[in-house]
Each structure stands twice: as C-alpha cells, then as structure tokens.
Amino acid sequence: MTSPSPAPVRLDRAVPFVAELVLDRPKAFNALNIAVTDLMTAHLAACAADDDIRVVILRAEGAHFAAGADVREMAAMSGAEARERDFAGCCTALGGFPKPVVAAVQGLALGGGCELIEMCDIVIAAEDAAFGHPEILLGTMPGAGGTQRLPRLVGMAAALDMLLTGRRIDAATALHLGLVSRVVPAAELLAEARKAAAAVAALPPRVTVLMKATARAAAEVPLSEGLALERAGFHRTLDLPERTEGMAAFLEKRPADFSRSPA
Ligand code: CO8
Q: Which of 39, 69, 111, 200 is least enclosed, having the fewest CB within 10 Å?
C-alpha cells in the first residue's frame, strides 16, 4: 500500500504570533496547481481569523520558490473553464490578506510565483534568487496581478521589459528595482525571514494591520485621499492603549511590551 502524498501546502506553527505557510511541491518547482492555490486560500483564511497569528511567513521547500502556474494543468484548461472556476482569482486571498506577510525567496520565482511575492509586504531574497514573468513565452499573460502590481513596484519601464520579453532578473537587480526588500546569503534566508517576522510580531497588531492597509492604499487612491487616510489612522492610534504603552516605555527608558495587545 502506498502512503498518501503529503499536502502540497502546509501551515507550520513554531513560535508565538508567527505562522509559516510553506509551498511543498519541490519536485514540480512548487508549481501552483489548483490544489496548491485552494490550500493557500484556506490556510490564509484560517490565519486571518486567528488572533494568535500576527504575521505570516510565505516560504517554499526545495531549491526554488515557485515556477508559476502549473503548465500541465493549465495546458488543458479553456478560457471558459478558467473563467468559471475563477482560475488565478484564487490568489486574491494573499493580495487581500490584512496581516503582514514576509516572503522568503530562494531560486526561481517565475510567473505566478513572482506574482505571489509581489503581494507580500517584506520580501527577503537569497542571493541565488531570480525573478521573471515568462508567461509571454507560453503565449499567455499574468493572471494574478503581474501586469498591475509589478509596474507599481518597479516602474513601467522595468516592468514592461520583464513582461514583454520574459527575461529574468537576479536578486541584486530585484533589490535595486524595489521588487524585494533585502538580499541575504542563501544559508541565512530562513533565519533572516524569521527574524523579520518576529520583529513585526512583537509590535502592536492593530497598528501593523492599519499601517499595511494605509501604505497599500498608496497604490490605489489619489495622493490627497491617501494622505487623509493616513491622518485619520494616525489620529485613531492616539486613542489606543498601544500608543500609551509605546510612548510610556520610551519615556521610562524601557522596552515596550505589546505581547498582550489586542488583535
Ligand atoms: N508547471 C508545471 N510543472 C513545472 C513547472 C510549471 N510551471 N515548472 C517546472 N515544472 C516541472 C517540470 O515539468 C519538471 O517535471 P518532470 O520532471 O515531471 O518533467 C520539473 O518541474 C523540473 O523542471 P525542468 O525539467 O524543466 O527543470 P529545469 O531546471 O530544466 O527548468 C524551469 C526549470 C526553468 C523552472 C522550467 O521548468 C520552466 O521554465 N518552467 C516553467 C516556468 C513558467 O513558464 N512559468 C510561468 C507559468 S504561467 C503563469 O505562472 C501564469 C500565472 C497565472 C496565474 C497564477 C494562478 C495560480
């Protein structure tokens, strides 16, 4: 009797306030098939609802982060089927996820894999990481935000250079363009991502969520509207016990303790 294959995505909990969403289909370069995206959606819904989770790390097993949508599965799919099952729409769970997400990226992040990292908040890349949108080489185009988020992240010239040619960029270029937040030696990738997640998880969750929502609005609303949102958020924080603790700690020259701050 063969043992059942392991789930292609799992949720690990090891330390307080942090969950690790792990792509675990390394033999297929973590290609994003429907099972993967359905599991991601379910795990993210659970993380959003769990007050003990303040930050999610998105990472992948194996040498590569993710080589995009599963081409074998996609090759058999018609446009009508894709529309019916909202294929690629499945990724909205990550794009709309309210809590901070730290991505740890090694090896290739291509197509849908690159789109995933474009939805994350702090992206830590290993020196060996490479990013690309090869959809055009398959005669198709991104479906999970690549044509929209990439230009907002790196600017139109660099984005169209990647989208229209399918060329890859290395981690140093991705850092230079603003697609990733930090580049570290491969051996330090996971530790650096966990350190970043722990640092955010130690902060008041209601304020990190508000900060993320307000900063993300910058890509969607006119400047005047964004500035008004920011001012309203800033004023709101002045009524929170979190800021009472933060400012008291500063004045008393002690570390602030947000460990019991509400979600
Ligand atoms: N889909 C399915 N299987 C894949 C994929 C993929 N995207 N990438 C790699 N694999 C599989 C290969 O089929 C192979 O499996 P097997 O051993 O069973 O034949 C195994 O992984 C190893 O691959 P290779 O033998 O090709 O290994 P190489 O080291 O020679 O090359 C590459 C690795 C460069 C990653 C190469 O496999 C490749 O180019 N893959 C396709 C990358 C690509 O085109 N990605 C974009 C897909 S389109 C897309 O993402 C659109 C997004 C739409 C929305 C997303 C919704 C989820």
A: 39
